[in-house]
Design goal:
Two copies of one chain form a homodimer. In chain A, helix 9 (about 265-285) packs across helix 10. The N and C termini of chain A lie far apart (about 55 Å). Chain A is about 40% helix and about 15% strand. The first copy, chain A, folds into two domains: about 25-280, 3-Layer(aba) Sandwich (Aspartate Aminotransferase, domain 2); about 285-405, Alpha-Beta Complex (Aspartate Aminotransferase, domain 1), CATH 3.90.1150.10. By secondary structure, chain A is an alpha/beta fold. Chains A and B meet through helix 1, helix 2, helix 3, helix 4 and helix 9 of A and helix 1, helix 2, helix 3, helix 4 and helix 9 of B.
């Protein structure tokens, strides 16, 4: 390969109906065109402060600490878990899909003593089951997924949060697939730490994890505070967090008036996240949530009218990502490839054991709009007919339209 | 603060003559406007492969492994150090500024046994000193900064590299301030692992760390391989890397034909890095390096003609960032603030003990161009006169012009 001949690529515009990354809002892309300024410039500092304040609003929290980390969503999960868990600490991770396994994986790497439980894919936990496991394992931290994008399930959190609060247990929630697209009442539900990603309901590109945590977690972080020796030779702490890059004691000092010199903030991505948050609040968090629910309902009703069936416990479906059984005789890979080739539309395959059985269809962020839903329904209908599936024709649009008319 | 009223900010175009982040090349900004596509889309996979190939070229290496990590430069440093260092391993970190301290800090957090040495700011190490320290400490890994942006010094690496190679010692180099802007012959100099950042000589925004490593380091990573349990329940390894997010055994599997599902790649930032690499190779790596040297020379000669003096060992100045003593009686903070307010030009303060004595002036990436050098020289002259400094007037442009005329 002679790399001096590499061309500027042309990227086709895709309609992205997957769990993410999603289509970026056009105004977010525009915001990313702003010129670079230094990270300690007054203007940049005020953007940082506004970003914190807007992050609080979408997490529905009064926590002081609410800021993005330069890294993808799992960087945020790891930052919060490795700040709160020390070697030997007891943690409980209830698993109901791929991302529960990920939390357990990250927690184990902190050398915590991690208890896990598993339930069948397509289900969520009853509070009674969670309570039983918590009472038996007596953890310092419970960490759980809110929206499990591998199964399209949403775990109710309120009773769990109240119980953890009563027991003095720290509750950390992976809300990557939910915040901005469905209700997430961090304070009201008693959640101590939470994470979301830039590339889901916020409609920004991937590359930033937004986190928030309360005073309970802050006090642990403060007790483990350790600054770079190049900045403060006297900073010594036996309990320091093992990662320097994801050390929340340094990150919160960077996001405080101290403006501790830690990393070089990702300027353009911060512009993106600032604008994505601003657009969400301009639309109104409530309205953004309603839009996600409406579009997913229309999509579901359309697919149902075609004769497709949703996977998993119907009372706890995510309003942002849903799994649908693949009609008999359809080759999942070939179908999705033709959808990309002919329509430039992406949907996602099932995960792990569900790989050949379901499609995961998302409608998140800027991808969650009527136009996308209707185009996708028509395209799925056409290709299912093309591949000879036995479906009801001509019903999908009418069913979706009925949802929109309500 | 009522956040529903936050406005889309207007960001003034700054002329950035600091160690970074630097002005982003206009074509890089354009590339970031490309629509999002899924990270397993064929087109995206080919962009990833091209990015690897171009990364090899700018690192001047035939290493297979050469790819970006979603995170700032220190994420890359931490990823390489925590992959190669296991608890109790011996490491040697020669320090000659702030970023040497950072390497030592990160290395210590891996629980390695870290030996450090320090020399006065403004100096670099002689090979003899390095050899003596290595022979005495017998490390598994030597980790050192190439371009120390806190002092503007560049450490010669060739003799060190050859010696480490002979001794079977792993040499890891922080080349954040140098790759693309000065020669960095990874293979020829015997360097096993190296890191650079997107926001320096490559003229992309901050948020990506580019790394490369050879088979010696790969074999350690392979021996520590551990995939998420949600992907492979049988993946168990006592020697696993403590970070999941920065685990190079998973990252290299993601950047291999396996395409291991690890993180959601930062789409727009990958577009940026791909285009930044492409532009560097289109200009020609040699020409890019010559441009950096030329502009820094012109800037230096201009400042010298004004009567300013460069800080530190003159035979080992960085061609990308240089420190200059602040003329007597000038308040560093007020001067830099007026430079931003009146001219929208940024230069950087000195670091740590040099804070009030020097300015750090960078000319990296797209910021390294004649226009910027000349504007900066005129502006510095005007403001030094405004603040009453005793300097030679009317000489700076002529001196810089002489360099360009050669």
């Amino acid at each position: 390969m002679n790399m001096t001949n590499v061309k500027q690529p042309f990227i086709e515009r895709h309609i992205i109906m997957t769990p993410g990354p999603v289509e970026v809002h056009p105004n977010v892309l525009k915001a990313m065109q702003s010129p670079i300024i230094g990270q300690f410039d007054e203007k940049f500092l005020s953007l940082m402060d506004e970003t914190m304040e807007m992050t609080r609003e979408i997490f529905q929290t009064k926590n002081h600490w609410a800021y993005p980390i330069v890294g993808t969503a799992r960087a945020g999960i790891e930052a919060l878990l490795s700040a709160t868990l020390e070697p030997g600490d007891k943690a409980y991770v209830p698993i109901f899909g791929r991302f529960g396994h990920l939390i357990a994986e990250i927690a184990k790497r902190t050398k915590a003593n991690v208890h896990t439980s598993e339930i069948p894919l397509g289900e969520v936990y009853s509070f009674e089951t969670l309570k039983k496991e918590i009472d038996a394992s007596n953890p310092k931290v419970v960490a759980i997924v809110h929206g499990e994008s591998s199964t399209g399930m949403m775990q109710p959190l309120k009773a769990l949060g109240k119980y953890c609060q009563k027991q003095g247990i720290i509750l950390i929630v992976d809300a990557v697939a939910t915040i901005g697209g469905t209700d997430f009442k961090m304070d009201e539900w008693g959640i101590d730490g939470a994470i979301t990603g830039s590339q889901k309901c916020l409609a920004a590109p991937a590359g930033m994890a937004l986190i928030s945590y309360n005073k309970k977690i802050e006090s642990i972080i403060n007790a483990r505070e350790k600054y770079d020796q190049g900045l403060d030779p006297n900073s010594i702490n036996d309990r320091m967090i093992s990662s320097n890059y994801l050390d929340l004691s340094q990150l919160q000092a960077y996001w405080s008036p101290k403006r501790l010199n830690h990393h070089t903030e990702a300027t353009s991505m911060l512009y993106a996240v600032h604008e994505a948050l601003r657009l969400t609040l301009e639309e109104g968090l409530d309205k953004s949530i309603k839009r996600h629910t409406l579009n997913m309902n229309a999509l579901s009703e359309g697919l149902k009218a075609m004769g497709l069936h949703a996977f998993g416990d119907k009372t706890n479906h995510l309003p942002t990502i849903k799994c649908f059984y693949i009609p008999k005789g359809i080759d999942s890979v070939a179908f999705r490839q033709k959808l990309v080739n002919d329509y430039h539309i992406e949907i996602a395959p099932g995960f792990g054991p569900l790989k050949d059985n379901v499609w995961r269809i998302g409608a998140l962020g800027y991808s969650s709009r009527k136009q996308n839903v209707l185009i996708l329904l028509n395209a799925i209908e056409s290709l299912l007919l093309y591949y000879g599936a036995s479906i009801n024709t001509g019903k999908a649009f009418l069913a979706a339209n009925k949802v929109y008319k309500k």
